[in-house]
Specification:
The chain folds into 2 domains: 29 residues; 161 residues, Lipid/polyisoprenoid-binding, YceI-like (Lipocalin, Beta Barrel), CATH 2.40.128.110. 16% of the residues lie in helices and 45% in strands. A hairpin with a 2-residue loop joins strand 9 and strand 10.
Length: 196
């Protein structure tokens, strides 16, 4: 084997190892376990100025986070859009329809983080892609993390524009009837996250 061939093979091996190293590091980060019964994802909109609260009854979350090295972590949500509830049978029957969440065509909404950074003690900023009704937008979600023994609780809220996601079409694009801003709030109770 010539010295040039040996050098090329050594260089290729070094590049492959360097590329694989972050993947191996991420694979070692344990997945936290969501305690679904104690967790919630809700939202508030305003109809003619009056706050209207709703929530999603079914969702999953995949969280891998080392609070001491948040950049190595990842967060993902999947929400069952058919589980949206306002507490009114009439409204609950409307929400899955085409002009709202169109749950038959889009049974899930999702979020996938692209970056996580510390924002102070017990606080993080999670940037990512939010997909609702086939529309994807960049969002930044502020998260507060508290810990009590083996249990961690992540809470936060952020505002989205419903019309960015085509939620509320036809006459419901009139924001004097239904506000464009929707505040999304969450509480995720998790086990398996390391100490801060």
């Amino acid at each position: 084997m010539s010295s040039r061939t040996l050098f090329t093979l050594t260089l290729l091996t070094a590049l492959l190892l360097a590329t694989a190293r972050p993947t191996l590091a991420q694979a070692k980060l344990p997945q936290a376990q969501l305690q679904a019964a104690a967790s919630e994802i809700g939202f508030t909109t305003r109809q003619m100025g009056v706050p209207v609260d709703g929530k999603f009854g079914k969702f999953t979350a995949q969280v891998a986070l080392d609070p001491k090295q948040p950049a190595s972590g990842s967060v993902a949500f999947t929400i069952d859009t058919t589980s949206a509830r306002f507490g009114s049978a009439e409204i609950d029957a409307e929400i899955p329809k085409v002009i709202w969440l169109d749950s038959k065509r889009f049974p899930q909404a999702s979020f996938q983080s692209t970056a996580i950074k510390a924002a102070g003690p017990g606080r993080f900023e999670v940037a990512g892609k939010l997909s609702i009704k086939g529309q994807m937008r960049d969002v930044v979600v502020p998260v507060a993390l508290t810990q009590a023994g083996p249990t961690s609780t992540a809470t936060g809220q952020f505002v989205i524009k419903r019309l960015d996601f085509k939620v509320g079409e036809a006459e419901w694009t009139d924001t004097s009837l239904l506000a464009n801003d929707v505040t999304v709030r969450f509480k995720l109770v998790l086990t398996g996250i390391g100490p801060q």
